[in-house]
Design a protein that fits this description.
The chain is of the alpha/beta class. Helices cover 38% and strands 13% of the residues. The protein has an eight-stranded parallel beta barrel, surrounded by six helices. Strands 1-12 form a two-stranded antiparallel ribbon. Strands 2-3 form a two-stranded antiparallel sheet. The structure holds flavin mononucleotide.
């Protein structure tokens, strides 16, 4: 198995082991909804539907980028796609670098037939933009019939990775060129260390259309990489907690809150804090492993709907205005 393929497989195995999550919290445990004892509506009246990359979502949720590029990834992506279609969630594919390097791996990412109606987002690391042409990126998107491209920023992960890239100069310019030329909109996401306000504004100015904070408090990519390498220790807990990252980035571009979102209640809180949608990776792969993906996803939806009900919020825009206590 080639290097990238075996790394993608290792990532799933390591993330599912104990110890790949941050010890510090997202901050969302310090947030409580102001309970509304008189919601004056029924639970059935809750409708949190929205649009994302021009397609409808029943719930403001995306399964964020995880996998592709090795044999078993195909079954994982197909399970995630079927779940996303059933629940009306968006779906992020894992980094497609492996399929650029080896086109025979393309089929491990192809899931449009299993999720015909929901947004599917392609994925590539920002560092790869320096290597690949717009035509290569265009074919990466079209070969999986994606609605957009996610560019991931992961300088922390790269710095602790055995074979990591450690020169992020010129990345903003490369992102801006992609935004100007690609036929689909671009979302920029972190991978668990969070985005700050300055970065969010620079990305908006570069032509990016959506942001995903992917803050700290969930999967720690430095911890994952430390399990594979002996890089300089001490960065296990590095990163902007998801709650702080949402507060930094809200109001700049349509915002996805992810990183340590583990329940629909976390997701609803992140929206009331200023995000437009929420996203998660680890709990979905964990649920696949446990064989309870559909139950997990349905519970997540119900939790979001109940948060809306108990705050008297009928729609997503009502939920965004729901009052919070921050302790
Ligand atoms: C197994 C696994 C593989 C991942 N691979 C990618 C990837 O290829 N591209 C990417 O942008 N993010 C990747 N991520 C990062 C997630 O999309 C997400 O930003 C991060 O894990 C924080 O969310 P979480 O705490 O819900 O896991 C991966 C996450 C997991 C758990």
């Amino acid at each position: 198995m080639k290097k990238i393929e075996s790394r993608k497989k290792d990532h799933i195995d390591l993330v599912l082991k104990k110890g790949a999550q941050y010890s510090k919290s997202t901050g969302l445990d310090h947030v409580d909804f102001v309970h509304n004892a008189l919601p004056e509506m029924s639970l059935e009246a809750v409708n949190l539907s929205t649009t994302f990359f021009g397609k409808s979502l029943k719930f403001p949720v995306i399964v964020t980028a995880m996998t592709g590029g090795y044999k078993d990834a195909k079954a994982i992506n197909r399970k995630l796609a079927a779940c996303a279609q059933k629940c009306g969630f968006g779906l992020g594919l894992g980094s497609q670098r492996a399929m650029i390097e080896n086109p025979t791996l393309t089929s491990t990412y192809v899931v449009r037939d299993a999720a015909p109606d929901v947004p599917i987002i392609s994925n590539i690391g920002a560092f790869q933009l320096k290597r690949y042409s717009i035509d290569q990126l265009e074919s990466l998107v079209s070969s999986v019939k994606a609605d957009g491209l996610a560019i991931h920023l992961n300088p922390l992960q790269e710095i602790v990775q055995m074979e990591g890239d450690t020169d992020f100069s010129g990345i903003l310019d490369a992102i801006s060129k992609v935004c100007a030329s690609l036929s689909v909109p671009v979302i920029v996401k972190e991978t668990g260390a969070g985005l700050n306000q300055e970065v969010a504004i620079k990305l908006k100015d570069a032509g990016v259309k959506y942001l995903d904070v992917a803050g700290a408090g969930g999967t720690s990519w430095s911890k994952v990489e430390y399990m594979r390498s002996t890089a300089i220790p001490g960065f296990e807990e590095w990163g902007i907690p998801t709650m702080d990252s949402i507060i930094q980035c809200r109001g700049i571009l349509p915002l996805v809150a992810s990183g340590g979102i583990r329940t629909g209640i976390d997701g609803a809180k992140s929206i009331a804090l200023g995000a437009d949608m929420c996203g998660a990776a680890y709990p979905f792969i964990k649920a696949i492993k446990a064989g309870n993906l559909d139950t997990f996803a349905e519970t997540f939806q119900k939790q979001m709907a109940i948060c809306a009900y108990l705050t008297g919020s009928k729609t997503l825009s009502d939920l965004k205005k729901a009052k919070l206590f921050i302790h």
